[in-house]
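Hi, here's the filled form for the chain we discussed.

Project: internal
Contact: R.S.
Residues: 136
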Amino acid sequence: MRKVLLSLLVILPTSLAFGSTITYKPIIPAFGGDPGNWGGLLAEADKQNIYHPPPTPVNVKSPLDRFKEQLQYMILSRLATKIVDAAFGTSELEPGTYQIENYQVNVTQQGGEIHVEVLDTSTGSTTEIVVPMYNQ
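And the returned structure, exactly as it came back:
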């Protein structure tokens, strides 16, 4: 009886245990998985990709070209400073035409305004800027 009881204690818990079948469902569409998984799998692969294409080469300018551009910017900046100083009455502005590379800048003073006309000689486009005089 003791042996029967002991064998029942060993067998009984195992018979009460519930189990289920393990099923395998592939994830990768090439192996039978859902075709909707391609986007997510591709995004994960791109995140893990350590290869980065080399950057595209940048136009490297010669020192002479950089100097020429700097000089043009400084001349235009100085002219802009003179126009602002004249608008606030801190200096006099001589009207005239200034040729800077492809730009022709015509400065005139009419009444209480300074008119600046910038002509791009390469394209023919014109820009007119009117600066009011603040010193009156």
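Let me know if anything looks off before we file it.
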